[in-house]
Amino acid sequence: MDSLYSPLLVLHSWNRWAILIFALFVIVSSVSGLSRKTGYSVFQKKSLFYYILTLHLQLLGGLILYFVLSPVTTMALNDFGAAMKDSTARFWAVEHAFVNVVAVVIAQAGSIITKRKSTDRGKHRSALIWTVISIVLIFAMIPFGMMGVERPWFRF
Questions:
Q1: What is the C-alpha to C-alpha distance for residues 40 and 52, in angstroms, rounded to an integer?
Q2: Range 90-93, long-range pairs (CB < 8 A, 24+ positions)
Q3: Do the beta carbons of residue 52 and residue 111 sit within 8 Å?
Q4: pLDDT at site 155
Q5: Cα–chain-centroid distance for residue 8?
């Protein structure tokens, strides 16, 4: 299993950049669509689709890391009480996982709501609101050091 840990961790680390890029596409195109009062374009549909797709890939990889491959979460789950007393272990065992799962659920729900909107303005507005909420949660949980946990920005 150790042979799978490093490559999956690298993919998990790099996929976050794809998530951020697609979120940026969705946000910028939604703001542009609202301000210019344009139709909800194929580009915007695809941007939202790829945002959701990269989130689901990230979730799948994260769950495999969390439950199967990560020595950090394995250790934390073996002694959950001790993990709750250590801020770094708590971040990985609870905060990072829980908040990101919530963010994926919010983004997915927002995508469904966006598709069901009948007007272009409603689609732009819905995509913007739900994407911003989800990406703010995700950004807060990326280990850039904001929550006291830091990891490399780029893994190789």
A1: 17
A2: 91/143, 91/147, 91/148, 91/149, 92/149
A3: yes
A4: 75
A5: 16
Distance (Å, whole) CA 95 – CA 79: 16
- pLDDT value at residue 44: 97
Do 9 and 38 meet the contact criterion of CB atoms below 8 Å apart?
A: no
Residue 46: what residue type? K
Write down how long the chain is: 156
Asked whether 26 and 113 are in contact (CB, 8 A), the reply is no
Let me know if 29 is exposed, middle or buried by CB neighbors in 10 A (0-12, 13-18, 19+).
buried
Non-local (6+) Cβ contacts of 132 within 8 A are 27
Whether 27 contacts 128, CB under 8 Å: yes
> Average pLDDT per run of 10 along the chain, which is 156 residues long?
88 95 98 97 97 98 96 92 92 94 98 98 98 96 73 73
Q: What is the pTM of this model?
A: 0.91
Joined tokens for residue 14: 């790099």
Helices (H), the chain: 2-36, 42-64, 71-78, 80-85, 87-90, 96-116, 120-141
